[in-house]
Amino acid sequence: MGTAAARSFVFAVEFRIAESQRVGPALADHEASLRDMGARYAFVYESIVEPGQVLVVIGVHTDRPLLEILRSPHFFAWFDAVGIDDLPAVFTGETVERFDLGEPPPPGGEIVVAAVLRVDDVDEFMARVRDSLDDFAKAGIRRTLVYRAADTSHEVFFLQQLATERTALHWVRRSETADEWL
Length: 182
Known about the structure:
Blueprint: E1 7-16, H1 23-29, H2 31-36, E2 39-46, E3 53-62, H3 66-71, H4 77-82, E4 90-100, E5 111-118, H5 122-131, H6 133-138, E6 141-149, E7 155-162, H7 165-174, H8 176-181
Antiparallel strand pairs: 1-3, 1-4, 2-3, 4-6, 5-7, 6-7
């Protein structure tokens, strides 16, 4: 029997925590077990408008079945390390497409706007994304990533990377294009 081909998944989880500065070190403490599961990166973003609201995005490349990863005690051991009692919802999916729209911000300077969206048709949604790339670039968006949910074909994780906090706040609060998207 042959082995399964390696696939790349993204795991995104958002939660509120009193001491958000504990999340990064907890991930670092569990780096070996996350790498063993195939983790290639882990990013922690704290909300600039809601203190204590955290988004963690972990990229995994593995030949293991997705359910095996989700059931691994190692995958969520860091939740215990930061003191999360109730396991939050986790978005799990695969990359649909990535669009680099400008110079990336310096490492550690990334600001993201992210949303999980229910869409009627992912292909139609992606056509709308492609049609909006110029507007995204004008709004200061440097990168747009779209992931399709593993458990439903009508859900996507839409992540946009911006260069500055100011452009992110302007995009979310004052942009006609963002009103359409978010």
